[in-house]
Specification:
ShKT_dom, 13 helices, mainly alpha, ShKT domain-containing protein, two-stranded antiparallel ribbon
Length: about 325
Amino acid sequence: MVSTRVLCLLILVASAAAQDNGNQNDLTQNGGGQNGGTQNEPDQNGAQGQGNGVTTTTTVASGGVSICADSSGNLTPASTACSNVIADAACAAVFTPIAGTDASRDPKCMSSDTYYQNLAKQCMKTCGMCCTMPNYSCTDKPNFDCEKVRPNCNTTNQVLRDMIAQSCPLTCGLCSGSCVDKSPLCALTVKDCRDASRYEAMKEECPATCGFCSPSGGSPSDCQDSADYAPMCVRNVHLCGDSRYRDFFLRKCRKTCNLCSVQPPQKPIRVGPNGICADSNVNCDIWKRNGFCESTFYSADVKKQCAYSCNLC
């Protein structure tokens, strides 16, 4: 049985969706949904677009880089969609609250000083930088009344949660789908994402920040880790989000790393028995057979190209 509250919310979501469908012609004429087909691509400043084609930085008319704002420097809704980790008043005591434009952001929010950097991560709303967080780096569905859904953002009903993630991800902080960070401190502990001893805790508390969410589209039932590498995949699961080893994991650890819907690369990366250890040159097998590893002619730095093949890990 579906509870009365859940049923009412389903009706509410369906009604909002119907209103959205009824206005789809207007949306097209006004540019609604134009980001739907935009691929996530990093910009030249290293900020990466997430969900729905949204990017965290924009080049403004002056040539500078604007954060969570449009090309005119006006803040986007995602800039202040999150909540501060600490009290708003505490944040305001350190940073002047942002006021509508990128130019109004307190310079301390972008300070290189570690003290202010750590405080800014706890005051993302005050600093107008929510769009840099995985859970708030997208947009809500156009013409969808997400304010009516907001009270149910934290529902534990998975069916409703998935529906809300599709229609109101920004409002509810579900830009990573129904996979979200549970801890408000993930931005402060992101370095622990690659710590093997902290993997289980970080997977539970900070899956979006750490990149541990499963990709959309699910996993084919026949997707498996390579039989020869399965134990190694499990030992190194905490490195699944590390770009240095992505090609290898796409080849050998697709199931463990939730990469079943991703096309593997053409050239694999090899791995040593005690963990990640790669050959960087595709000719290492041939070189090894020709005595490369034992030769005193080649320097240690040159041999590092074949770290796995030459047992240099």
